[in-house]
Amino acid sequence: MRLCTKSRERASRNDRGQALAEAPIVVIVLCCLLLMLFQPIAMLYTKMVLGQTAASLCRTLATDDEGHDLKAYAQSKLEGLPQGSAFQVPGSLEVRTSGGPSTPEVRVEVSLKQRPLPLMGFLVGTNTQGLITVTGKASCPGTRTNSTQSPEFEYPSLGQH
What we know:
By secondary structure, the chain is an alpha+beta fold. It has helices spanning 2-14, 18-63, 70-77, and strands at residues 94-98, 106-114, 132-140.
């Protein structure tokens, strides 16, 4: 009986360093998984900010006759985004509008480009420069139409376009 316990003690002494050898592998895998989660979070955050910017621009365009610079206004709204290429590539902001105060419907589309992180770049569809286009859209009725309904803004789904 005593012989059997001694062999178990020897076996457990031999395995004591096993966890120390496996820990770096587990830590590296967990860190890579966390980094892979960062890209979709950054993309969804950018999508939400673009949707809010498009809605704000839509309201402005529906009530403004003076033709203010909407791209500068959109840029000021997007200053809340971090200045990394994972959130926005500098100079990639595009603002497309249609309609105005006297039209039945005003539409605004705000888009910018993001550079995916290296771990996610192969999983998402990128263009030839390796960039992803993220878009926010909004629409509302013009303020000078005979519409009695309150402005309803259409937000796009959070998927990519």
